[in-house]
C-alpha cells in the first residue's frame, strides 16, 4: 500500500459519522432525546460534527471511559446530535447549546452539567460520574 493511500484511508476512518461506529450512542432524531428526558431518564447529549477535531477527541475519551466503566452505558442513555443537521434545532435552542463539541448531562429536564469544547479525561469522567450518581 502506498503511503498516500494509507493516509487517505486513515483520515476517512477518523471522521466517520458516529452512527457508523460500533458500540456508539443513539443518533439523535427529533423527539427521541426529548422523550427520554420527559420520562425522567438520565440522558447524555453529545453535540458533534463529523469534521470537528475536538469532537473526535471527545469521542475517544468517551469510548475509553465507557470501556472502563460499563455502568455508564447501563444507566445513562447516550445520544449524539449532529450539529450540521440539528445545531439550530429546537433541542439546541432550548438548551442554549453554543457550538458543536458540547457535552450535556441531563436528569429528566434538569441539566446536571455540561462541557463546551473540553477534552480532558478528568472533566469528562466527572460529568459522566455526576450523571451516574443521579441515576
Automatic annotation (TrEMBL):
Gene3D superfamilies: Glutaredoxin
CDD domains tied to this protein: TRX_family
Ranges for domain Thioredoxin: 14-133
InterPro entries attached to this UniProt entry: Thioredoxin-like_sf, Thioredoxin_domain
Protein's name in the database: Thioredoxin
Gene source species: Paragemmobacter aquarius
Amino acid at each position: 500500500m502506498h503511503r498516500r493511500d494509507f493516509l487517505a484511508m486513515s483520515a476517512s476512518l477518523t471522521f466517520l459519522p458516529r452512527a457508523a461506529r460500533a458500540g456508539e450512542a443513539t443518533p439523535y432524531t427529533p423527539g427521541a432525546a426529548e422523550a427520554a428526558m420527559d420520562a425522567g431518564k438520565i440522558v447524555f447529549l453529545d453535540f458533534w460534527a463529523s469534521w470537528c477535531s475536538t469532537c473526535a477527541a471527545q469521542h475517544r475519551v468517551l469510548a475509553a471511559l465507557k470501556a472502563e466503566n460499563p455502568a455508564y452505558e447501563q444507566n445513562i442513555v447516550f445520544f449524539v446530535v449532529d450539529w450540521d443537521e440539528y445545531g439550530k434545532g429546537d433541542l439546541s435552542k432550548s438548551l442554549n447549546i453554543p457550538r458543536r463539541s458540547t457535552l450535556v448531562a441531563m436528569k429528566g429536564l434538569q441539566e446536571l452539567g455540561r462541557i463546551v469544547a473540553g477534552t480532558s479525561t478528568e472533566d469528562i469522567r466527572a460529568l459522566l460520574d455526576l450523571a451516574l450518581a443521579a441515576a
